[in-house]
Amino acid sequence: MAHYLALARKYRPATFDDMVGQEPIANALKNAVVSNRLAHAYIFAGPRGVGKTSMARILAKTLNCPNTKNATPCNTCDICRAISAGQDVDVLEIDAASHRTVDEIKPVIENIAYRPTRSPYKVYIIDEAHMLSRHAFNALLKTIEEPPPFVLFILATTEPEKLPETVRSRCQEFDFPPLRLEALLKRLSFVCKKEGFEVEAGLLRRIARYARGSMRDAISLLDQLVAYAGKSPKTEDLERLLGTPPFSLLARILCALVDGNPSALADVYGEATARVSPERLADELLFLVRDLLVLRLTSSQHLLRFFSESELRTLGDIDPRALTVLFANLLETRNRMRATAHPDLLFEVALMRAAHRGTIADLVRYIQQNPAPPKTHSSTTPPSNPTTRQPQTQTKPAASNWLALRSQILSRLEKPEHRAIIASATLLSSSDDTLVVGIHPNFASQDLALEALQRAMSAVVSRLLGRATRVKIEPDPRLRSKNASLPPALKEKVERVLRLFPGAVVEEIQDVRNGGDDASGAESADQNQASAEGP
Ligand SMILES: [Zn+2]
What we know:
This protein has 4 domains: 2-175, Rossmann fold (3-Layer(aba) Sandwich); 181-242, Helicase, Ruva Protein, domain 3 (Orthogonal Bundle), CATH 1.10.8; 247-369, Zinc Finger, Delta Prime, domain 3; 386-481, 2-Layer Sandwich (GMP Synthetase, Chain A, domain 3), CATH 3.30.300. It is globular and about 85 Å long. The chain is of the alpha/beta class. Helix content is 54%, strand content 8%. Zinc ion binds next to helix 4.
């Protein structure tokens, strides 16, 4: 345990320039120090492990170190070392989680009027500040309103919305975002180099991924891994340490799902759940499908969050439409697993259902054999225009060439669920500053946060067209009438299919009752469905 703490502490950032991933805040504070425009109270808000306390200590050192040059403390003098250890007489760190009441905060406040002992500033770093009681806040408020000129307050909190508005309005607030994967990787590589660890890039990426935006967790995990497996750890060591399924198992599950092979799935499912919980397995499959979709739709390696490109390439070309359907199924199942006493059964049956021969693979084959007619309602350019075949090209598309614009939009929308909706969207009308985009009514009727989609679309389209453009999203009335004209019995069947495949779009309806194979396939799929959802 002592070793476990050591590495994260050893590589704690010591100057503003060390604050990898929080550069905007570091620069703002640095400029405030250099130009002598410090506020007297700051709120550092953000999730755990993203550098709030480190930033507070660096600011305190910068103000109090006698050797500070260009807003960079020396980190070697007594004062710097005492602040780094959280033990300086003039830089007081108060953990609000354990000093909540007014009686505990009172002595601190009464001392505020006294000058600092040996440094220019008295700095109060209040950690988890939202935990203070209301009375403690009221006592604090008076001093925050009119602090002596030598006092600086830094309130660090993971839940800024729980701070009283009266306090927030008197502080300058910085929001620390979760650290991006690249920032974590950069620091992890730095630590490995300094410590002489040999960790391959794919494994580092996985460590960073499990840290979920926390630098402290990333470095601690690296530390644990090296303690567990030596200075050249392998991916399997991390899997054993964390109890995650090996990539090969995930790959086999995915292939069984996409190929529609329930018996292969049953084998590998048993193997996987002997090693990890069904919840973990479901999460890992979601991560895998997400990354595969991103790679297939954008070819952008840097957007991958969980797996390396080389790992994903081993899975071959899986149709993105199959992946979209699978993702929706997995996500829905994962949510339902939280609300049941038998998550293992629910997950197993849901996977079996997804792998049942004649579901995803057949659906995709069906879609491929019945391609949607090109939707060129408002297009003035024929669909054979070269820009439609080269979505990566940098030339600006015209709003009137909807197909070309749509494929460029698709490569820029970040969220897979947004891309799934826009993939079949039409252009209803356009003016200089507004595009009205039509989507299938099934999407509009689901609770799919269309506002977020409108915002994302407006941002992407404005960038693509090089001018501020508002995107309005509406159900395409032509598609609505097609659906409404169905006889009630058929309409109900269509709705059942749509419940099975959330986000799917009905392109065409065929009567297959006379085709022997198809009919038996449909029946057993029905039974399967009934057994999954029956009492
Ligand atoms: Zn110093």
